[in-house]
Design brief:
The strands form eleven sheets. Strands 6-7-10-11-15 form a five-stranded mixed sheet, with no helix packed on it. A five-stranded antiparallel sheet has the order 36-35-34-33-37, with no helix packed on it. The longest helix has 12 residues. By secondary structure, the chain is mainly beta. Strand 26 and strand 27 form a beta hairpin. It has nine helices and 40 strands.
């Protein structure tokens, strides 16, 4: 009978109200499912007489916009929709793209997802055994369905690392892996400008960590590619394998570069293979690049556990996409990239926008760009979207993510003023604190050739709710997605407020210093609505990630300058203010624990006087202490985003004699669903 469902009859009855039916509240079933006149006999069944289980089963097959109208006509339907787990599971599936509901139940999960009132940080317990020394700019990856972290490389104040570690996220225990293959492993390196350094790729039932490039020594980078795995085996069986191009392929190794993007392209079939897209960046001469390279394990001769033979290398290379017909983007670096599966055309796309490079029709080599492009992975063509950011909003170093068929662009920074660009061309300009949305279904339309750009498409400015968001300007931030893209997390990055002429603020390659990095409690969770004005956002200050020192160090006198952002914590008499973000107005003279006048942001929007011991800086607390965000793997459901940060070692805890500091690695995660009770409290 579903094919005879009359929406107009339902709406008409809803307007008439419950009195329209002689059988009590709600419409007569014949009015909904039949074209004939309703039966006026008193024993005719009504929707109210149906068992709740049947009503829930019906609701699970009704499109969401109709479900609310259906509930308006029948009180039993409304009650069943509110109570039936099956109906909420259908809502959850529509929001997350089919991701399995959380253990706490679909109804509670949907509420937490749409309101973000349960977004929180959680810290793993410290490992009682061996653990890696703290290092910055390491490669951190998530694997095994989000149950393990991989850490490779990085550097501290005076040395580069080449050790590899695995962390069990259920217990927080670290174990060193691939130690038996030190003679055949990547050389010591870090990844401060290399898009994280790698990703985890799936090939059939196996997972492999792919590492590319990196800074091997001050001023020197290479273009080596290494594989670690198989990750489905116990960590003690993992080993490093160099990826060497096949003999018949010439020039398969990409040019060594930095300020590029590495984008994971998930497989479309369960038995398929993930791919990795390398796009743009700067070469050794700091010239912007365009070439797009794709890496996949589809034709690689991977070793299998059953063979019992240790392979010396893997014959696999990077495929080149330089010979592309038609228009193509200009060379660029500091750009943003993301993957998108177009639902109507059934094609995978690599999206790229903004960046720093030569502007069309201009003579500037390092101009901020405002264009948006899509690379069709099936046809190998670049498609330029009609959407461009408004004049004055061109940018580089922005965060980019896809959420519910919309492209979300957050933050970034302008190009430097012309007077400074001549001798400091890569230095970032003032940072943005805005969010923009682009409807990809309207911007890219199906055609005979696959896809074509729509004649008209535009970025829409997304004004986030002032009562729940106190925004910060971000450059170099990370945009991570949770639950199938239903939630976007914007975290990390830097503020460009300090003078870029200071030696400690920026280096000659345009990379900002750690002191300008935003703290993790400045993370913003965003849920994209059907319209930009219905987008929800919240700062994630609940809970606390690991940091240097117990509970976070109080701000120093140098940090308590006017306009500095602070997190309020530890208040007992005004506990409702804990977790708020405010800016310093003035500081009273006296000791370090004297009072500070703080202007709180939304939702409080008032000024308070507070002691320094209840404040925590919103910038990185110590040099070399900037957290590293883990790149998600292709096999996980994306229910949490993991971060490693430094903590002080406990008194008497042993460490390697050559360790230059007394800090170790600690693991934290952020999620938007309530923590299951069986896991305990953080």
């Amino acid at each position: 009978e579903a094919g005879r469902f009359s929406q107009s009859r339902m709406l008409a009855a809803a307007r008439r109200g419950p009195s329209a039916s002689p059988h009590g509240p709600g419409m007569h079933p014949h009015t909904l499912l039949s074209d004939s006149a309703p039966d006026s006999s008193s024993d005719a069944p009504t929707l109210e007489s149906l068992p709740p289980e049947l009503i829930a089963a019906i609701g699970a097959h009704v499109k969401l916009p109709w479900l609310g109208r259906f509930a308006c006509c029948c009180a039993a339907v409304a009650g069943a929709v509110r109570q039936a787990e099956e109906a909420w599971a259908a809502v959850w599936a529509s929001l997350t793209g089919g991701v399995a509901p959380a253990p706490l139940g679909a109804r509670a999960a949907v509420r937490s997802l749409l309101t973000l009132d349960q977004a929180h940080w959680r810290s793993l317990p410290g490992s009682s055994g061996e653990a890696p020394d703290w290092r910055q700019h390491g490669c951190v990856l998530t694997c095994s369905g989000g149950t393990r972290l991989i850490l490779f490389g990085g550097r501290d104040g005076r040395r580069f690392f080449c050790d590899t570690w695995a962390c069990d996220l259920a217990s927080g225990a670290w174990v060193r892996v691939a130690a038996h293959s030190d003679a055949r492993c990547p050389s010591p390196r870090c990844f401060n400008s290399d898009s994280g350094g790698g990703r985890v790729l799936r090939s059939g039932e196996e997972e492999w960590a792919v590492l590319h490039g990196g800074l091997c020594a001050p001023g020197y980078r290479d273009s080596q590619t290494w594989l670690l795995g198989p990750l489905s085996h116990p960590p003690k069986e993992w080993s490093w394998l160099p990826a060497s191009p096949p003999d018949h392929v010439e020039g398969a190794a990409p040019v060594a570069r930095f300020h590029h993007t590495l984008t994971l392209l998930p497989r479309r079939e369960a038995a398929g293979d993930d791919s990795l897209a390398l796009l743009g960046g700067h070469d050794r001469t700091i010239s912007p690049l365009l070439d797009l390279r794709l890496f996949s394990l589809r034709h690689a001769s991977l070793p299998r556990k059953a063979s019992g033979v240790a392979a010396a290398s893997v014959s696999v290379g990077w495929s080149s996409s330089t010979h592309v017909l038609g228009p193509a983007p200009s060379p660029r670096a500091f750009h943003s990239a993301a993957h998108y599966d177009h639902p109507a055309a059934g094609r995978g796309l690599l999206l790229a926008c903004c960046g720093l490079g030569p502007a069309a029709g201009g003579e500037e080599v390092f101009a901020a760009l405002d264009d948006t492009w899509a690379f069709d992975l099936s046809s190998g063509r670049w498609l330029e979207l009609a959407a461009r950011l408004p004049h004055g909003f061109a940018r580089s170093r922005a965060a980019l993510a896809v959420s519910r068929d919309r492209l979300l662009l957050a933050g970034g920074c302008r190009a430097r003023a012309a007077a400074l660009a001549t001798y400091l061309p890569l230095t970032p300009g003032p940072a943005f604190d805005d969010v923009w949305l682009l409807d990809l279904r309207r911007g890219l339309l199906p055609s005979e050739l696959g896809l074509r750009p729509a004649a008209v498409s535009a970025w829409e400015r997304c004004v986030l709710p002032h009562e729940r968001a106190h925004r910060t300007p971000h450059a170099n931030a990370t945009a991570g997605t949770l639950h199938g893209g239903a939630v976007v997390l914007v975290l990390g990055g830097h503020d460009t407020f300090l003078s870029p002429l200071a030696d400690e603020a920026v280096d000659s390659f345009g990379d900002l210093a750690d002191e300008q990095a935003w703290a993790l409690h400045e993370t913003e969770a965003i849920v994209v609505g059907e319209r930009p004005e219905r987008t929800e956002a919240r700062l994630c200050t609940r809970g606390a990630p690991h940091s240097c020192g117990e509970g976070g160090a109080s701000p120093s006198r140098r940090q308590l300058v006017g306009g500095a952002r602070m997190l309020v914590q530890g208040l007992e008499t005004q506990a409702h203010i804990n977790g708020s973000i405010g800016t310093v107005v003035s500081r009273a003279s006296g000791s370090a624990d004297g009072r500070v006048d703080l202007a709180l942001g939304p939702p409080h929007s008032k000024s308070i006087s507070i002691r320094c011991q209840h404040l925590r800086p919103s910038r990185s607390e110590a040099r070399g202490g900037m957290p590293t965000i883990a790149a998600p793997g292709g096999g996980g459901d994306g229910s949490a985003l993991w971060v490693i940060s430094p903590v002080e070692r406990a008194a008497g805890e042993g460490r390697a004699a050559e360790a230059p500091s007394n800090r170790r690695v600690a693991v934290s995660c952020i999620s938007v669903l309530p923590q299951p009770e069986h896991e305990g409290s953080a």
